TrEMBL record:
Lineage per the UniProt record: Bacteria, Pseudomonadati, Pseudomonadota, Alphaproteobacteria, Hyphomicrobiales
Name of a matching Pfam family: TusA
Top-level taxonomic group: Bacteria
Species per Swiss-Prot/TrEMBL record: Roseibium porphyridii
Name of the protein described by the UniProt record: Sulfurtransferase TusA family protein
The UPF0033 domain, residue ranges: 6-30
Family the entry assigns: Belongs to the sulfur carrier protein TusA family.
Signal sequence, start to end: none
Length: 75
């Protein structure tokens, strides 16, 4: 299992979700991806993306000025 960090701070909707999707295509099932973002819409978009595409949202944390999401790639 690998863990990857994706720093998307400063990008606006829809770029965080699009770049998250692209990053997940390079990972194997069960690999983890941490996504950092400052886009307020990511709080809605990233969990919805995971639910719609079979990925597991392990954690969502509100940070000062943004969010951190921990995802596991689904099968």
């Amino acid at each position: 299992m690998t863990e990857t960090l994706l720093d998307l701070k400063g990008l606006k909707c829809p770029l965080p979700v699009l770049k998250t999707r692209k990053a997940l295509t390079r990972l194997n099932t069960g690999d983890q991806l941490t996504v950092l973002t400052t886009d307020p819409m990511a709080e809605i978009d990233i969990p919805h993306f995971c639910q719609e595409n079979g990925h597991e949202l392990l954690a969502a944390e509100k940070l000062e000025g943004g969010h951190r999401f921990q995802l596991a790639k689904g099968g």
